[in-house]
Amino acid sequence: MNELLEKYPKTAKVVKEWFLEKMIESLKDDSVPDEFKEFMRQEGVSNEKLAIMIGSNPRTLFDVFDANSIYISVMMTRLSDAVKWQHVIAYDDLNQTELELFDTRLNCEKDAIEKSFDVLEGKL
Length: 124
Fold this sequence. Notes:
It is a single chain. Helices cover 55% and strands 19% of the residues. It is of the alpha+beta class and 124 residues long. It has one domain (2-123). The longest helix is centred in the C-terminal third of the chain and has 19 residues, at 105-123. The radius of gyration is 17 Å and the shape is elongated. The protein starts with a helix and ends with a helix. 20% of the residues are buried. The model has no long low-confidence stretch (mean pLDDT 86).
């Protein structure tokens, strides 16, 4: 995921800003000093920390892409006794259906995020 953030710097910036605002929003408590919130804004979120968050839970980024009119849908399908996963990415009146089947939802979501990074980078 770290390589993804480096490969798509414009998208990485959008993602970092979104995560930072969510963190600051979670500190709405008046007991948290404004100076600390400003420090968090200046400090930002490192690529390393962001890569860990994305890698462990890529669907947290679905809201980021929704806000940028890139919509990810993950679907489960049954093949005999096996459960498989695939995704569709919809944007600009286009649908990219991933024909590849993934063994886990996590791997499917990671692939969808990687492809959505490329789409958003092109839009920015």
